[in-house]
Automatic annotation (TrEMBL), chain A:
Protein name, as recorded: ATPase AAA
Lineage: Bacteria, Bacillati, Actinomycetota, Actinomycetes, Micromonosporales
InterPro entries: AAA+_ATPase (IPR003593), ATPase_dyneun-rel_AAA (IPR011704), CbbQ/NirQ/NorQ/GpvN (IPR050764), P-loop_NTPase (IPR027417)
Record-level Gene Ontology MF annotations: ATP binding; ATP hydrolysis activity
Organism field: Polymorphospora rubra
A Pfam family per the record: AAA_5
SUPFAM superfamilies found in the cross-reference section: P-loop containing nucleoside triphosphate hydrolases (SSF52540)
Domain AAA+ ATPase: 50-196
UniProtKB/TrEMBL annotation, chain B:
Protein name stated in the entry: Metal-dependent peptidase
Pfam families (UniProt xref): DUF2201, DUF2201_N
UniProt-listed InterPro entries: Put_metallopeptidase_dom, VWA-like_dom, vWFA_dom_sf
UniProt cross-references to SUPFAM superfamilies, sorted A to Z: vWA-like
Native source species: Polymorphospora rubra
Superkingdom to which the source organism belongs: Bacteria
PANTHER family (UniProt xref): SLL7028 PROTEIN
Domain VWA-like: 274-383
Domain Putative metallopeptidase: 12-267
Amino acid sequence: MRSSIPSVTPATPHHTELDVAADLLTLLRDTATEPRPDIQLEALTLAVAADLPVLLWGEPGIGKTAALNQLAAALDLPLTTVIASVHEPSDFAGLPVVGDDPAVQGVPMAPPDWAVRLVRAGRGLLFLDELSTAPPAVQAALLRVVLERRIGALRLPAGVRIVAAANPRSSAADGWELSAPLANRFVHLQWTYQHETVVRGLGGTWPRAALPRLAPQRLPEAVAYARRAVCGLLTGRPALVHQMPNNEARRGGPWPSPRSWQMALCLTAFATAAGSSREVLSMLVRGTVGDGPGLELLASLDRMDLPDPETLLAAPATAELPERGDLRQVVLDAVVAAVRERPDRARWDAAWTLLVRALETGAPDLVVVPATTLAALRQPDWDVPAAIERLTGVVSLSRRADRVAAAAGSGR
Amino acid sequence: MTATVRGALDLQKLFTARLHAARVRPYLATALFALRPVESRRVPTMAVDRHWRCYVSPAFVDRTPVEELAGVWVHEVSHLLRDHHGRGDRIASQQGLTGRGERLRMNIAADCEINDDVYGDGLARPEGVVDPALLRLPEGKLMEEYLTMFRLGPHTQGLVWLDCGSGADGLEREWDLGADGAYGLSDQERDAVRFRVAQGITGQPGDAPKGWRRWAEEAFHPPQPWRDLLGAAVRSAASSAGAGEDYTYGRPSRRSTSLPGIVLPSLRRRPPRVSVVVDTSGSVSDTELGSALLEVAAIARALGGRRDLVTVLSCDAAAHLVRPVCRAENIPLVGGGGTDLRTGFARALRATPRPDVIVALTDGQTPWPDRQPPCRTVVGLFPRHGAARSWDEEDPDYVPDTPPNWARVVTIGPQPY
């Protein structure tokens, strides 16, 4: 992407027709960029920043390579593209070269030139294109490149980041599918095009990838947050730790294993430190451990973000309850559960105050179930608090619903 | 309580209805409470948008009994849970359906998908709802299937007022607050709500009707086109180590001449031998078999298999003659009666040279071999539906043997959305 004005001077006489063609091409290539939020690009950048290998799934011609070019420009890294399907396994595992005395010196595995150049540069973006159309033996050789970062005798330096691209099975008519071990090493991102972005881009303005800025003071907090989320979820759901894909439709995609959970943890910490949106994190996490486990992790993050029932009970009159109805209901249920756990008069009263507050700031039907449960917790020597007067509306609403239920029951 | 300003939205009534809906459909409570009511005088009744806002007409609330309002709540939230707007958009872009008429058709088809099993059981049926019976269509189909079954005409004339909003068909309405408006849910939040509802249903499947259970199973793992899956399974079985195409050091590479001193592997190609074992017991229909068989033959040919390397074996209680596929049309499928695929497997494996891949096409109502055969196995499984599924209702505990886990199983069914 060039944003400078090209030096086209139509006044100069052209020597050949090709010169004119070159001028036209220069004009066509003259495009500008603009900062625009792009969730896909942000997710890709974040995963690359986290030094995790990324796999872009997308139909041919959808702009995966263009996105990689942008990313390389934004990160200021030289881009090396390797088309996996036209290479042989030895191109990645190293070419065995027979020397003078193999019995003494051994047979060195010579790396290809692009690997040598990458190592010499010390930094760069390695783009493995058309991964899914590579034969199984090539994929097996790539395993080592992606995981151990080794190509023959060479080791890719830390400054090299790996991104791969593959066509989905439906469009790769002659493709092999990704083996489960290789699939488990990648962050899978579904690459689709945004209509508006393409139209604006063809008009001359492409979005610019803005690097996520990691806030240095938030790093320890981000790590603690990510660890708490992942460990909290996996403690309660041991079955989620390792699930090989057993279903034909899920083969070749992300699946949960200790390795991919480690990656999910890392990505959660990065997204937290960068202040990324939940959309970006959702894309990354679901692309790492799969849809189901990824959504469970996000759900447990949502729960962690909800206010703690004990904090609410400590200051019920000024409590901040979530705006969204379903979350508010979860919080109120948690408060009532906390009172049931350790019932005493003060906590019971505080819970009533909280329910009144919920009634004043939101929909009344959410309060019905917690109010009924809380009323049932009353001990004989506890007086009914004055606050309960304010809940009469709820009681009548509940009674009305009871009558509807009775009518519906008898009518049928 | 009921003393409300004339013309204002009766929130008490609306919330009473929601509470009732949440009580009789506890598995939908999360989704119901996540909906945000927005008063709007431009909607005819109640309508949703894709950001989970629910536009409510005050006049409609006034004239509708509470029990029917509860039904409308569940109806509207069903549109959102079932992603009717996203599916509508996909159909619109795939088939080039544009215009309000087509979107109305999508709304009607979506309503048919919802309404056949949503009411009853404590939930009153609102007046004037569309259901498949009204259009003389069968029950239990998906929106996409209904769309192919009817056109707008005199019999749908009474439905043109019908409008469940952009959440039902994907077309933006003038009253929509848009993505940036207040109280909307983001993509991620919508997914989280749908996921929680789906988990609630799969966690306690006894409470929810069959339509909802099917939705919950497929909400985040929609079925894929079986042709692609079967193709990928056969291709991967035929090309995996030991069969078909891979690298070998057994023969010099064609690059060797230009790189003296370097030992290179070369690509070796041996066409895979594929044995297709076809279950010809009475329970599998000829059309199903025919299409699956053609598919396997086409895949095998695409792999470079010569026709004589693909053999087909029909099998009911005994294995019948083996013959190579010359033209897929003239394979005689003999048999009928009970199934025992074990004889079919045994017969296929007795062939010399041995097949690299066995593809079994069956409805799965058969005993399976005890041990893994010494070659890759792909099972194309015909799900039993329609009349043949009656075992499901009469004896819900009966589960036929599932295919063994050494086989790759592809379910062959109708094309999903």
